[in-house]
Amino acid sequence: MAKVSVIVPAAGAGTRFGGKRNKIFERIGGGQPVFIRTLEAFTARDDVCQTQLVVSEADVDEMRERFGGNLGFLGVKIVVGGATRTESVRNALANLADEAELVCVHDAVRPCIAQPWIDDVFAAAEKTGAAILAYPVHGTLKRVGEDGAIAETVDRAGLWEAQTPQVFRRELLVEAYAAAGDSATDDAALVEALGRPVTVVEGDPRNVKITTPADLAFAAAVIKTLPKPKQEGYRHPFAEPKW
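Above: the chain's sequence. Below: its structure in token form.
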């Protein structure tokens, strides 16, 4: 079982969510903050040797003051992010644990990740060197012009929506980020740019990325429907806390 270092980017501005603070602090169904729910999915696994939470400089003080104890209990290290997602992940890559063979990058705002899905993408990355969760596009896609009118209907054949986790051999991801600019929003794209193949593992539409308040409500509704762990090395960290 390969050892995995997990990087959880949480430094985005989240302007589409609205509000005055980072959406990672929002509570799912009035319970856990989004980022805590996300972190717990990884810190309770025997194959995870390190977890880094990358936050913006503006959120560092609040994170340490309000959640420092919780993060310490979970064994999570806070890393200060940069101006872009690429820069933020690069900051975490500079602090990888020596024993890490694979690196997993997972959005802090994808709290509905289930253990079997993590098992599958970890196994695929260990076998092939690069793997991501993704889900095939089912709806009809329209390209819309600046005037608000449909410019064309896009053929959806072969189109998949990328999700996270995205998992890579350590050396491969480090090489990809060393060669990258600062505009990428997807780790797999950086590896693809090296000419290396990336395996797609079919995910689930419940693995939602929280972008709007409606997504937060959806996450609260689907959490109880998620598949249970199938990996013996998964240990639930503790009973549902009051944050």
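The longest helix spans residues 60-74.
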